[in-house]
C-alpha cells in the first residue's frame, strides 16, 4: 500500500503543475480515484479541484481531509531520480506527498457519516480554497469537520505539532505603483522621480518588526543613464498573526503612504490574500488525541506558522484543524530548490488521518 503511494508521489513529483494550471495533476488524481468505489466524484471544483465522497449511508458527521494540487514556479535542484521533468516548476512544498497521503484514504467508507477527500487547486496563491468554497458544487460536500496537514522541515521527522487557535498567519501582497514623470538625466529637477518616495517607503518598511512587511520586488526607471526615472513598482508582502492584525497593518500603511507621496501618484492593488488559519479547539483536540493514540512524538512549535495557508478559508464552514508533520530537523526548507517531500511521512500522515476519521465516525 505505502509502496503504491510512494510510486504515485514520485509520478506526481515528475509532472508538477503550478497554481491555477493543475489540469494534468487533477487528471492523474481523478484517474487514481476512479479505481475506488466513490459515491460521488467531483472534478473542476473551484478550478481544477477534485473531490471524492465516501458515504456510509448512516447519519453522522461529514469529515473532510484536504491536500493541495499545485507546485511552484521554481527550478528543482534536489538531484533525486524522480525530479521534475518540467523546466522551472517543481513540488517544493511537498503537496505531492500530501496528495499521496490523501490517496491512501481512497475507498475508505466510514462506519457513519461521510468522508470527503478534497484535492484543492491554487493553494500557493491563496485563491484555491476560496474558489472551492464559492463553487456551487461544494454545497454537496459541505463538511462538519475539516483537517489538513502540512509537512514541516525543522521539526523531527514524523513528529506532530498541533494547537487550538492561530495555526498560520494572515498575509496579503501589495503592488505599489508610483507614477511621476521622466526627465533628461541632466535636468532631473524638471521631472518627478519616484526615488525619494521609494527610499522613504523602504526605510519605513524596514523599521517594522521582522516578517511584518517583506519587500519582494522593486523596480524603478529604465536601465539607462540618460533618463531620470518617472515610474516605480514595489511588491510588498504584509503578514500578521490574525486577520484583524493584518487589517490594522494595512490601515496604518495606507495612512503612512497617504502622508508620504511627495506629490506623486501611488496606486495600491492587493494580491494573494490569505486569511489566518484558526484551529477549532474541538478539531485540534481530535488531532492531539490521534497523535497520542498512535504514540507519535509531540513536536514543539512556535504557533502560528509564519507562512500563510489558505486552509483557513474553510473555518467559516467547518470545525477545522491544520497540523504540522515534521520533515526532519536538517531537511531543506519549504520552497528551497533542494527540497523533496520525505517518503517516510506517508505512513504516519495516513495513520493520523485514519485515526482522526475513526474518532469522528467510528
Ligand atoms: Zn508552499
Ligand atoms: Zn504548502
Automatic annotation (TrEMBL):
Top-level division of the source organism's lineage: Bacteria
Ranges of residues in domain Peptidase M20 dimerisation: 171-260
One Pfam family, short name: M20_dimer
InterPro entries per UniProt: Amidohydrolase (IPR017439), Bact_exopeptidase_dim_dom (IPR036264), Peptidase_M20 (IPR002933), Peptidase_M20_dimer (IPR011650)
Alphabetically ordered keywords of this record: Hydrolase
Protein's UniProt name: Amidohydrolase
Organism of provenance: Roseinatronobacter domitianus
Lineage of producing organism: Bacteria, Pseudomonadati, Pseudomonadota, Alphaproteobacteria, Rhodobacterales
Amino acid at each position: 500500500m505505502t509502496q503504491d503511494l510512494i510510486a504515485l508521489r514520485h509520478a506526481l513529483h515528475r509532472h508538477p503543475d503550478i497554481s491555477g494550471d493543475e489540469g494534468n495533476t487533477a487528471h492523474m488524481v481523478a484517474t487514481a480515484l476512479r479505481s475506488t468505489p466513490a459515491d460521488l466524484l467531483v472534478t473542476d471544483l473551484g478550478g481544477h479541484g477534485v473531490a471524492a465522497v465516501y458515504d456510509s449511508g448512516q447519519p453522522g458527521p461529514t469529515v473532510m481531509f484536504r491536500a493541495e494540487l499545485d507546485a511552484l514556479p521554481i527550478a528543482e535542484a534536489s538531484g533525486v531520480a524522480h525530479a521534475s521533468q518540467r523546466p522551472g516548476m517543481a513540488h517544493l512544498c511537498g503537496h505531492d506527498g500530501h496528495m499521496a497521503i490523501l490517496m491512501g484514504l481512497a475507498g475508505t467508507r466510514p462506519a457513519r457519516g461521510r468522508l470527503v477527500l478534497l484535492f484543492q487547486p491554487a493553494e500557493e496563491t491563496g485563491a484555491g480554497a476560496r474558489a472551492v468554497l464559492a463553487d456551487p458544487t461544494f454545497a454537496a460536500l459541505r463538511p462538519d469537520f475539516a483537517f489538513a496537514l502540512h509537512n514541516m522541515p525543522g521539526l523531527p521527522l514524523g513528529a506532530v505539532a498541533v494547537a487550538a487557535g492561530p495555526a498560520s498567519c494572515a498575509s496579503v501582497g501589495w503592488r505599489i505603483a508610483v507614477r511621476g514623470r521622466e526627465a533628461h538625466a541632466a535636468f532631473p529637477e524638471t521631472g518627478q522621480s519616484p526615488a525619494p518616495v521609494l527610499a522613504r517607503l523602504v526605510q519605513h518598511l524596514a523599521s517594522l518588526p521582522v516578517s511584518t512587511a517583506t519587500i519582494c520586488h522593486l523596480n524603478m526607471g529604465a536601465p539607462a543613464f540618460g533618463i531620470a526615472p518617472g515610474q516605480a513598482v514595489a511588491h510588498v508582502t504584509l503578514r500578521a498573526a490574525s486577520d484583524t492584525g493584518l487589517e490594522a497593518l494595512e490601515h496604518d500603511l495606507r495612512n503612512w503612504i497617504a502622508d508620504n507621496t511627495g506629490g506623486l501618484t501611488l496606486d495600491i492593488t492587493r494580491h494573494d490574500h490569505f486569511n489566518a488559519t484558526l484551529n477549532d479547539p474541538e478539531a485540534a483536540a481530535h488531532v492531539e488525541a490521534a497523535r497520542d493514540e498512535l504514540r507519535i512524538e509531540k513536536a514543539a512549535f512556535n504557533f502560528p506558522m509564519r507562512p500563510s495557508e489558505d486552509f483557513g478559508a474553510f473555518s467559516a464552514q467547518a470545525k477545522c484543524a491544520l497540523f504540522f508533520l515534521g520533515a526532519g530537523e536538517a531537511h531543506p526548507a519549504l520552497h528551497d530548490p533542494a527540497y523533496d517531500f520525505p517518503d517516510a511521512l506517508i505512513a504516519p500522515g495516513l495513520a493520523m488521518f485514519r485515526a482522526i476519521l475513526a474518532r469522528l465516525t467510528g
